[in-house]
Write a structure and sequence with these properties.
Largest sheet: 4 strands, antiparallel
Order of helices and strands: HEEEEEEEEHH
Distance between the termini: 31 Å
Number of domains: 2
CATH superfamily of the largest domain: Immunoglobulins
CATH class of the largest domain: Mainly Beta
Oligomer: single chain
Structural class: alpha+beta
Strand content: 15-25%
Number of helices: 3
Radius of gyration: 26 Å
Length: 193
């Protein structure tokens, strides 16, 4: 019975989660184990769509890492916590500033991409209507909030609830009770009703 309780906790302890967001031209993220335990000293490698290494960072004591984006392309972040445990996360090229040069190896389009927050052209004599597009700082704040909510959602999903634990113990005790009943009946200690 002790092995049954220890085995799941050992398996769940190694689940690795990786989340990241973009602040300007900086990619920031966190690596943590199940239960939001920070993964310290974990290597995080950023790869371009062709698999070439773009950047490398190591997590600090809070499991956080950061590096500057050099190109405007998809960044595939890979965290390696050792012993075969790791996680991946993709930062889309559209999340990075338009001022960054595209990756020159053909892995991203060579045509410049217009920024999402550029206002539409207005012809002479007309006025623009509707709300003004959000500024860069507002978009960065929204991205940071979304990343925080993403982390909280993962933490909620990872949390073992008390009812789950009690349900598992009840199931084990129920199966053991049925087994002992059948065993006692086979030996003749119990007579059928």
């Amino acid at each position: 019975m002790a092995i049954a309780f220890l085995a799941p906790s050992a398996a769940f302890a190694h689940k690795v989660n990786l989340s990241a967001n973009v602040e300007g031209a900086t990619i920031r993220g966190k690596v943590h184990f199940r239960g939001m335990t920070p993964a310290q000293g974990v290597a995080v490698v950023a790869l371009d769509p062709a698999g070439a290494e773009l950047a490398k960072a190591t997590t600090d004591e809070q499991g956080a890492f950061a590096f500057a984006a050099q190109y405007r392309c998809d960044y595939r972040l890979v965290a390696d916590a050792g012993e075969g445990h790791g996680a991946e996360y993709v930062i889309q090229a559209a999340q990075l500033p338009a001022e960054l040069p595209p990756r020159g190896d053909g892995s991203s389009p060579t045509t410049p991409v217009a920024p999402n927050d550029a206002p539409a052209a207005v012809s002479a004599g007309t006025t623009a209507t509707g709300p003004a597009p959000p500024g860069k700082s507002q978009l960065d704040a929204v991205r940071a909030d979304i990343a925080r909510l993403h982390e909280e959602l993962r933490a909620y999903e990872d949390r073992t609830r008390l009812r789950d634990l009690l349900g598992g113990v009840g199931y084990i005790l129920g199966v053991a009770g049925i087994a002992f009943y059948l065993l006692a009946r086979r030996r003749g200690e119990l007579k059928p009703p």
